[in-house]
């Protein structure tokens, strides 16, 4: 399922320090951008603080290159009483925007937190 038709939650360009020995961007850097974008959507959806509790079905499809600008897209795929599954997809704009490449996707689970950092129910709209 491609979700890139929506507006991105986050757009960012990697920096030279984010390159691994193969000349690609570290997978952990990409993963952190995904977690940031997912956390933005989770916090808005839960109307308060959330925490990442799981990453499921994560797969890297293509490398991110230094000149790429990545766009991170996300939507709520699964709703629970205190948690939500957010599908996150990363598209790289390559060759000065002439090419778009899907580089990774995954399903992240976030839990809504109360003031004591304990799970709290999410008020889902009807």
TrEMBL record:
Molecular function per GO: long-chain fatty acyl-CoA hydrolase activity
Translocase is among the record's keywords: no
UniProt keyword annotation of Chloroplast present: no
Pfam families: 4HBT (PF03061)
Residue span, HotDog ACOT-type domain: 4-116
GO cellular component, one term: cytosol
Record's keyword terms, sorted: Hydrolase
Residues making up the signal peptide according to the UniProt record: none
GO biological process: acyl-CoA metabolic process; fatty acid catabolic process
Superkingdom of this protein's organism: Bacteria
Transmembrane region(s): none
Similarity remark: Belongs to the acyl coenzyme A hydrolase family.
Name the record gives this protein: Acyl-CoA thioesterase
């Amino acid at each position: 399922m491609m979700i890139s038709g929506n507006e991105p939650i986050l757009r960012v360009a990697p920096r030279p320090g984010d390159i691994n020995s193969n000349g690609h961007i570290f997978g952990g850097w990409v993963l952190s951008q995904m977690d940031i974008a997912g956390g933005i959507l989770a916090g808005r959806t839960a109307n308060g603080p959330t925490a990442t509790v799981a990453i499921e079905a994560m797969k890297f499809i293509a490398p991110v290159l230094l000149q790429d600008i990545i766009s991170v897209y996300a939507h709520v795929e699964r709703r629970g009483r205190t948690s939500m599954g957010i599908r996150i997809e990363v598209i790289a704009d390559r060759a000065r925007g002439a090419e778009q490449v899907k580089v990774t996707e995954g399903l992240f689970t976030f839990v809504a937190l109360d003031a004591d950092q304990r799970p709290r129910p999410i008020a889902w709209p009807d």
